[in-house]
Design brief:
Layout: H1 20-49, H2 51-70, E1 78-85, E2 90-96, E3 122-130, H3 150-171
Antiparallel strand pairs: 1-2, 1-3
Helix pairs in contact: 1-2
The structure holds zinc ion.
Length: about 170
């Protein structure tokens, strides 16, 4: 797997000051959140009016859930991050290890576990380390003795018989 260089932004997190860009990102994120909720509401409305649509939706979601469950993640594939949220609190989050930082990793706006505010963007971050240790590669096992094939055995027998014959011939006067 490709080595990922994990990035930090706005460290030390405790002293980070919000920039204009942070305010803009948070505002945009809230607008997107509102638009998504509106669309979900409209969709729910349509599903109520159309049971076939609701059933198709349910099946599609099931398929996605099934697909997600096949992407089993190991602890060593999860990167832990210390992040500062828009509200100013510092919390921990986790991302797949292939992302160099939680923002480009597409971290969703989240609720702050400290103050309870919702839909908060990440304004600063630093990597902590992987959630679990990568398992050590197994030491190479000694190659098990290969069982000879039947053809190999037959050739060996033939060679031994040949040898025998030669020895007998040589030994006889
Ligand atoms: Zn907070």
């Amino acid at each position: 797997m490709r080595e990922v260089e994990y990035r930090s932004h706005g460290v030390p997190l405790e002293e980070y000051e919000l920039t204009r860009r942070d305010h803009r990102r948070q505002k945009e994120s809230e607008e997107i959140g509102r638009a998504a909720r509106r669309m979900a509401d409209e969709d729910a409305e349509k599903c109520r009016a159309d049971p076939a649509r609701a059933e198709r939706r349910r099946q599609a979601l099931e398929k996605v859930a099934e697909l997600m469950s096949t992407f089993e993640k190991h602890d060593y594939e999860i990167m832990r991050w210390r992040v500062r949220l828009y509200c100013g609190h510092i919390v921990e989050t986790q991302m797949h290890c292939s992302y160099s930082d939680p923002v480009t990793g597409g971290a969703l706006p989240r609720r702050c576990s400290e103050c309870g505010a919702k839909g908060l963007t990440i304004v600063a971050y630093e990597p902590i380390g992987p959630l679990g240790e990568r398992p050590q590669p197994q030491p190479a096992q000694p190659q098990p003795q290969k069982r000879p094939t039947r053809a190999q055995l037959e050739r060996r027998v033939a060679a031994l018989e040949e040898e025998n014959k030669r020895l007998r011939t040589k030994g006889s006067p």
